[in-house]
Amino acid sequence: MVAIRATAACPSGFFTVADEFSLVPGFYPYKQYSPPHEGAVMAHAQDEQQIRDLIEQWARAVQQQDLDGVVAGHAEDIVMFDVAPPEQGVRGLEEYRGAWPAFFAWIARGARFELVDLDVTAGAEVAFAHALLRCGEPEELASAPGRRLRLSLGLVKNNGEWLIQHEHHSGTYLPDPHEGEQSVRDIHAQWFADTEAKNLEGIMSHIAEDVVSYEHEEPIEYLGIDAVRSMCEFGLNQTTGPVTWSVPGLRVLARDDVAVAWGLNRMTAQMTDGSVHEEWSRGTRVFRFRDGAWTMVHQHVSYPR
Questions:
Q1: For the chain, how big is the Rg over CA atoms in Å?
Q2: Contact (CB, 8 A) for 130 and 153
Q3: Which of 22, 34, 52, 158 has the fewest CB atoms within 10 Å of its CB?
Q4: Is pLDDT above 70 for 40?
Q5: Which string of DSSP letters, residue by residue, matches the chain?
């Protein structure tokens, strides 16, 4: 601690306060800092434990399909933002009660709803908590063990009892695999059109900044979008005539945020003498769904030897 001598101002001038105060970091020197009373610390810890117990009991009630247990401990004006509609959320205890039977039917088919992480912060009258849960059918949880349902809660103390006044449930967005497959096919169709139009910027628009490409020519790998751009530009400029690219038997497999496409590339180019050169090669392309869009992160093309 550092002792200081405080000087204060008044409308008629300045005067010096001769009293010395203890300066505690983060506090004004005009008031001696007092640590929280032991009783206040214990009350705070008890509040956080009560909230933790309330949330853990709620999660168990969901898994047990106990509607009364799920509704218990919620305020009359509860507002829940759920993964499912409605967009404006579920409002009021009756709507909250009505939102659960359909979810219970899913639980009854073998789905799990389990708390794996819970953090609680409590004030005197208001508290919040956030949690992660394992939520899904056994097959889903086995194929994506790291997937979590996210939960945020706002609580108020009413007559000494903690009540949940707000719930927000969400999961990270994963594109539908059928939508992912179609998106990758659409990218290929756009590539084919942009190749024929020799639209380099259009071709590059679906390629990730950190792409890694294994091409026919050296170097052994092309790292980054600038390297791939240079290679594509060189290829398009090899002839002044039309250039076409297609993958007649294109196959696409999409799961979650990853997709793979493969097939035989058919390239044609009109030469200066008017003849058309045709070339076939093998191609595999990997896509990631990032920032709301599918982009190619890896390409491997080759000729059989």
A1: 32
A2: yes
A3: 34
A4: no
A5: -EEEEEEEEETTEEEEEEEEEEE-TTS-TTS---PPPHHHHHHHHHHHHHHHHHHHHHHHHHHTT-HHHHHTTEEEEEEEE-SSSPTT-EESHHHHHHTSHHHHHHHHTT-EEEEEEEEEEE-SSEEEEEEEEEEE-HHHHHH-TT--EEEEEEEEEETTEEEEEEEEEE------HHHHHHHHHHHHHHHHHHHHTT-HHHHHTTEEEEEEEE-SSSSS-EESHHHHHHHHHHHHTT-SS-EEEE-TT-EEEEETTEEEEEEEEEEEEE-TTS-EEEEEEEEEEEEEEETTEEEEEEEEEE---
116: phi then psi, degrees, rounded to nearest 5: -120, -20
Query: What was the pLDDT predicted at 146?
Result: 85
181 and 156 within one domain: no
**Same domain flag for 26 and 43:** no
The domain of 87 spans 38-170
pLDDT digits (tens, 9 = 90+) for 246-266: 999 999 999 888 999 999 999
How far is the first Cα of the chain from the last one, in angstroms, to the nearest whole number? 80
Distance CA 149, CA 244 (A): 46
Statement to judge: residues 140 and 249 lie in one domain: no
Q: Hey, what are 68's tokens?
A: 């009364």
Here the CATH number for the domain that contains residue 289 is: 3.10.450.50
